[in-house]
Amino acid sequence: MIQSDASVRCFGQMLRSDDSVIGYHQTVVTTSVARNKLQLLRSEKLAKRPWLVHAFSTRVGGVSRAYGGSAFNLGFTKQDSRAAVERNRELFLRELGVANGRKPWPLVTLRQIHSDLIHRVDGIPHEPLTGDGLVTDTPGLVLAVQTADCLPVILVDRKRRAVGVFHAGWRGTVKRIVEKGVGEMRRHFASDPRNMIAAIGPGVRGCCYEVGQEVRINFESQFAYGSSLFREVKESDPVREKYPLLFLTARAPGHSELPVKLFLDLAEANRRQLLDAGVPAKNIDTAAPCTVCHTELLFSYRAEKGLTGRLMAAAGIRPGLRE
Description:
The protein is an alpha+beta fold. It has eight helices and 18 strands.
């Protein structure tokens, strides 16, 4: 664990009650940590690697006045000042342990475009990168993606000491960005998927991710298991249920239909891609909370109607350390 004034918690610690994992829909306990204390989340599966630096940020403990104040916004948004975001990023690197009393590690990010573009990084890029994935086996760099409902995925090769970070919204998931990320690590670093560990970080979960039929069509056209990723919920109408004859129509089967809400399990979609790419099920951590359910802890573009900050998922390699 990072030793500092910040609170650093693993997914399992967040989502356990009486030593049993609780559902995503239940409240994440945050009241034990002061509102102004910076909080980071970590995956238990990744935290066991001493050479690995990683964390998922929260919205708590920053210097941004936007988004409720004391916000830990790590994205350059219209509502926040550049100075506040830069200071938040400095705090993030410090709490990662890569900026303590010396020159901080470079923070490498992308202009994200919901694509399947993945870049190998060996140093500070000479020009801004565009895409949705980064991979490296070079120590001393922090790779990061930003999210506010889309899924951040960290992928680690525990044998080759290589890391990847990926931004997976529904469009990137349809384009198989995480599956291609495994392939890029195999190509560049000779990684064996059986030695990989993955953490799917905070993002919108199946409980809250309502989508349209066009999203289902896209998934079902690309994946044999596509239909299993969706859940249908019929809307209820107490008046209609009490007085059904008022809603009779000439259309078969005799009653007009209420609309059906459609929910996508994006985390499961990415877990299935990792499995198909050869990553063992036991090596995939999906225990992170839902952003829409937990706006007291996390930014959510959907829940906050687009006026929200950005979370960051980051990973890097410590120089000189081994397993």
